[in-house]
């Protein structure tokens, strides 16, 4: 792994996007930064912005660490990313429609048939069924990493139930409160329209019979889920109900929500429950989280589900290497965003390469998430590498491997000093039949431990506000407070 690209720049040679931030850091005493960090923690604690960490003793609810130094992108950088993100998600939706329909990409031999049809994430229940509007992944979170001034890579696609957008919105609100002067020195693209655009996206997915004002609800597994705060936050911001499985019932293939005024028909469900637990009649019969008969109502065209069941096949890490081919096959375009080179351990040659270079590679579970089940070879012990080698030999199809990239760094407040830390970026992409929308920025996740490349909050990472600078002539920063979320809302 080579030296990391510093997005702010070194010494007096700061990037233009970071010029004001660099001046602010140089002029602000360390004790003032520390006081602002404490104030930020107080705000987040007061609201109760927590996430759950499973498998550990004690109280699993924790504050997600928030770093007060923003990550800054120039508008030209963002525009290139947005074009690539839109292209990628359009191709992923086309892939989902195809593999549950005509399967043309499989017949053409562009993707191995067995890799799709025998994949645990492939849902035969979805074959031959087209969701309302023909959109499968309405909300996608695409993880990006940077290695140089113009070098961005897609690290993974999240097409099922991507989380983290509430942190993006709350981080912006915190920065507006904590640093209004710094904010006013920039023209920063607002992110506060996301809940409104999400609601428009969900309503656009409704069955035609629902009319111009369909009823939308968020289906949550409940308060023990790690993203429960986000479910409640988004429901409040959109003005819709957050419900659990027991709050819904299906009669004659129609979904109703129990309310104090009696049953109310539901037209669109933004589900934050995994496929397996969505409907005990269709998937796991022991599920206590889902809604019996929900899939029958969905297939009858009486309710829309966002995202559609079966989207997991599009974000499986073994499918990921083929996304550039999807773009060429379905869109007839050259991919705008590159993949990280990936080795599939189920292939004999790839497996031999991975096993011989475990000290150089990152190994991941093909269906893993949250930083679990991962080996970062250069930072692992000999015993850990030997353990992973045994796992790969025992279940080669469960693992993929990638080079250890030198992720870019941004200035981060670490203790009493500012130091570079590695980051990634998760923009959120909203899709309807006719449009792809992306609010400028996304969630920057930062590896707070020195030298660490793991940014996941479950593995000790934190978050930052992501500023996309408008070009000269854009709206002044002072007016943007009117376009952000109107304050902290807790459930």
From TrEMBL:
Residues 478-491 have a biased composition (Low complexity). It holds the Pfam family CP_ATPgrasp_2. Transmembrane segments: none annotated. InterPro entries: ATP-dep_Glu-Cys_Ligase-2, CP_ATPgrasp_2, UCP005522. Residues 457-491 are annotated as: Disordered. Residues 70-447 form the Circularly permuted ATP-grasp type domain. This is Circularly permuted type 2 ATP-grasp protein. It comes from the Bacteria. It comes from Sabulicella glaciei.
